[in-house]
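Input chain follows. Return structure tokens only.
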Amino acid sequence: MKTSRMASTSIAINEAQLLLAEKRTSLSVMRTGIAVLALPLSVLSVLIATSKYYDVLKVIHLLIPLGVLVLILIALGCYLIIRSMIRMRHYEKMIQEIKRRHSLLSEFID
């Protein structure tokens, strides 16, 4: 009986470690999403700051593809951030379930 309980606790610890590793991965994806989101904002800042040095109508053929690329990067950054937040919430619920099932782990995991 004691061996079975130790095995069950060991499995629960392994499950918690796996979920925490997945949560760290989601945090990394969120960090990447923030970086991808910051890139187009900085490009737009440079374009606005230097706008007095060029005529928009003369460089519109360059601004349109750049605008499309900026919109794609903003969409990608938002997608990565939202997806990682949803996944982290899911992992947190699973960790709470493990803590509920194994009271021994609840004192070690916040």
